[in-house]
Amino acid sequence: MVQRKKIDRILLGIVLVLVSGGFLIFSSASLGLLGREGARFSSIALSQFVFGIVGGLTALTVMSAIHYRFWRKYAFYLFVIGLALTLAVFIPGLGMSHGGARRWLSIGTFSFQPAEFLKIAFVVYTATWLSGMQRYVETFWKGTLPFLGILAVTGIVMLLQPDTDTFLIMAAAGGAMFITAGGRWRDMFIIGIVGILLLGSLALMRPYVMDRLMTFANPAADPHGAGYQIQQSLIAIGSGGVTGRGFGQSIQKFEYLPEPISDSIFAVFSEEFGFIGGSLLITLFTFFAFRGYKLASQASDIFGTLLVVGFITVITTQAFLNIAAMLGVAPLSGLPLPFISHGGTAMLMTLASVGIVLNVSRYVRTKKD
């Protein structure tokens, strides 16, 4: 039997704490833009609040009310649309480049990152395919090989931009879903080895990937160049001490930390709230992950389980990679911190995916099943 109940309040509570607290962190980090030429604090904060938070919470509410099995019928079309939108960044006059990558679509004054939509579409399609082919997932020809095909198509589109970091997150989510569906660990290990070899080849072909790996190996080798961001991040985190300088009192966000409202926002937060604040934020993301995976184990069917595993893995992997990079225990990735960093599209899509997870939590198996 399947029992319908209210959405999981514990997961919702964790998300609301992260979003509300995250906006305060974002607001403080945004003050660092006031000292930078051309920065528009008011427009950035308004965009984050209106499009990211209000729009995102609206999407969460809508998605939590739509039965999750609805998405199964349109999974293939969503995936194709996601790939098409992501490829559209290469259309002259429509795609927008920044920092040497083409990852945004610009329509008038509105711009968004289609890869954020593709993350949702990828999880929905992969969950649909794996749940439909579960009896064959342990075989190589009907299970592992087609799964590799899905990863390969997604990877080619993402690496063309290039957006290596986002693809690695999607691959991690895909791997978690593959194992959950009954895929063999041996096959997953082989896929991992192939992935490492491909990453090594990519580092040889694309200097920016090699620079990140070399900087991770020796952050002090080029403190004014490739190692500048990690050096400034460590200074900010170290300056926070145990309790921090206090809300709004970060010094590094003024002209020192690159991208203080994006991938460096954890460093700003740690400088202002110290070791205690940083540990609390990590704990919240840990609780988010544990609660999400518990809900996955209680889902009424394998499709619901895979959806939750995919979305929770995407969000938590991105969060911990961002934090690890700022602490110097992982290569710099340029990934935003979910629920907190600047990015209206990312916030909206992240909260929309949480809405789907919350809808899955409405339908649980009873002990008699």
In brief:
The protein has 369 residues and is mostly helical.
Oligomer state equals single chain
Q: Report the principal-axis shape.
A: globular
- Main sheet record: 3 strands, antiparallel
Q: How does the helix and strand content classify structurally?
A: mainly alpha
Low-confidence stretches: none
Query: Percent helix among the residues?
Result: 55-70%
Beta fraction of the residues? 5-15%
Could you spell the SSE succession in H and E letters? EHHHHEEEHHHHHHHHHE
Radius of gyration: 20 Å
Mean pLDDT: 84
CA-CA gap between termini:
6 Å
Tally of structural domains: 1
How many helices in DSSP terms?
A: 13
Describe this structure as you would to a colleague:
The protein has 369 residues and is mainly α. Helix content is 66%, strand content 5%. The strands form 2 sheets. The chain has a 3-stranded antiparallel beta sheet with strand order 2-3-4, with no helix packed on it. The protein has a two-stranded antiparallel ribbon with strand order 1-5. Helix 5 packs across helix 12, helix 5 runs parallel beside helix 13 and helix 8 packs across helix 9. The longest helix has 34 residues. The termini are close together.
